[in-house]
Design brief:
Length: about 500
């Protein structure tokens, strides 16, 4: 074993019985090392099953055990053990002290976490998942976690707003064990608290910038969709997410705020949708007793009803194009086209919409495994705004089928029915506000519901909703995936990793 202190990298070389080096070696950076112990632990399928106290009185003579993380395929992370045996006890203690001190110098490793668990989300297994799959990893890494079981809606929000300053400043990260709804509540409460402490008005949509919360965010996917955690890690595997939290992985994520005039409604770090997707979520709330399959049932019901909503979408591009954009004509009457009203945004489109979808991140989920918005990123400073006008039921079914089977890239041939733009802010004005409540076309003033990170947000009939992006506002426990990497288009069984040769290295190399 050799240690490069400058690069903080350990190199393990497997030796023959006579001390001659073999070709089998592995480099392990301290970024991937979870812990260093004097006593071994039991691993089953790359995960700890029994963790005893690392007591020096019961340690293994002349040996240290290094537990490091490794990708077993494109997405899944697990733990491996390297047992290093020394010739003398003095040599062992010297190496152990050097390695332990180097590990403690990693300032980005979390030491204190606040964990919120929704025991009722998804299949109701969040508490069991945390105790069996997450807590042992935190114990192994020496992470202190304060656990709170949520008892009602907004419980997490109220707790964070009332948290005393001493505890607030001691937290390194906030972890939600549940679905996208719980994470959205954690996100809103933390971002709002950070702005209050820095005397910034988050309700002002024209504010120059918001304050980044000092703590990072993590999700253990125990809900029905788990879209955010799947987007960041490429999988909703709970152990993989826990490993990234324990080793302190970090990536910056864009966040969008939703405003109704001078009122802040929500903070979003996932997808905002109106029309078909919003109605599916609203309808599924009536069938919670069915579990996750309620989404498929509500999707069939909503497809049969085929709702469309009249309104106007106005938006500002994140980067101005070389040539002006061309839209189909707006449905009359359009005050902006007629010149009787001005708009703060550069572009607008007024029509009957089947879908209005804004993606802050690529949005991977069980329903969109190949990304709903594959061309956007976690922290690229833009949102993808997709608009689909009124189409037939068959055309809508084709769109949904292509998204489910091929992702957003499969919709490129549907240029006539799909309009996608990269925006920094946008506004939706409902039909009732455009035409008035007493219009002779009552179907034009029907209001749908928004699907905002898995939460229902009713569309007010007399107010426009405004959406603004705040680039890289939060930090997340994860490492952004390169979705253009060809490995992400292959199944797990086609991705071969280096075979494990041995977990024992003898006689450290000088």
């Amino acid at each position: 074993m050799t240690f490069d202190k400058a690069k903080k990298v350990l190199e393990f070389v497997l030796l023959k019985p006579n001390g001659v080096s073999t070709k089998h070696k592995i480099n392990v950076g301290f970024d991937e090392i979870l812990c260093i112990r004097s006593t071994p632990i039991k691993l089953k399928k790359g995960l700890p099953t029994c963790i005893g106290k690392d007591d020096s009185s019961s340690d293994t003579p002349n040996a240290i055990f290094i537990y490091y993380t490794i990708r077993v395929n494109v997405y899944i992370w697990r733990i491996r053990e390297a047992a290093v045996f020394f010739t003398t006890t003095t040599e062992k203690k010297q190496w152990e002290q050097i390695l332990q001190n180097t590990l403690k110098e990693l300032e980005y490793r979390p030491k204190n976490l606040l964990v919120f668990i929704n025991p009722y989300g998804g299949k109701g297994l969040a508490k069991t998942i945390y105790e069996n799959q997450v807590a042992p990893l935190f114990d192994l890494a020496g992470v202190q976690a304060k656990v709170l079981l949520t008892e009602r809606a907004n419980h997490c929000y109220e707790y964070m707003q009332e948290l005393d300053p001493e505890t607030w400043n001691s937290i390194d990260g906030i972890v939600s064990v549940g679905g996208d709804g719980l994470f959205n509540e954690v996100l809103c409460s933390t971002v709002i608290r950070a702005q209050v402490d820095s005397n910034k008005d988050i309700t002002d949509i024209e504010i120059d910038s918001l304050t980044t919360p000092r703590m990072r965010f993590g999700i253990i996917g125990a809900g029905s969709a788990n879209s955010i955690v799947s987007t960041v890690h490429g999988t909703d595997d709970c152990s993989t997410a826990a490993i990234h939290i324990a080793i302190g992985s970090k990536c910056a994520v864009d966040v969008a705020t939703v405003h109704e005039g001078r009122k802040l409604l929500k903070v979003s770090a996932n997808a905002i949708s109106y029309g078909w997707l919003g109605d599916v979520l609203r309808d599924s709330e009536h069938y919670r007793c069915m579990g996750p399959i309620r989404y498929q049932w509500s999707a069939l019901r909503t497809t049969a009803l085929h709702p469309t909503y009249f309104g106007r979408v106005s938006f500002t591009l994140s980067n101005q194009p070389e040539q002006p954009l061309k839209f189909p004509e707006c449905k009359k009457p359009c005050e902006i086209c007629d010149g009787t009203k001005t708009d703060s945004h550069t572009y607008h489109w007024q029509t009957d919409f089947t879908h209005v979808i804004c993606c802050v991140i690529p949005c991977v989920s069980p329903f969109t495994p190949y990304c709903l918005a594959p061309y956007t990123g976690l922290g690229d400073g833009s949102m993808d705004l997709a608009m689909v006008p009124k189409v037939s039921r068959c055309a809508n079914f084709r769109i949904l089928r292509k998204v489910a089977m091929y992702g957003g890239k499969g919709l490129i041939p549907l240029e006539r029915d799909l309009h996608v733009y990269r925006v920094s802010r946008w506004t939706f004005t409902p039909g009732a506000l455009i035409l008035g409540e007493n219009t002779v076309e009552p179907e034009k003033v029907q209001q749908g519901a928004w699907n905002l990170d898995g939460e229902i947000l009713p569309q007010p009939s007399d107010k426009a909703l405004h959406f603004r992006l705040h680039p890289r506002l939060i930090n997340y426990f994860g490492r952004e995936l390169d979705l253009d990497d060809p490995r992400y288009r292959r199944c797990f069984c086609c991705y071969k990793t280096e075979k494990k040769k041995s977990n024992i290295v003898i006689n450290p190399i000088e």
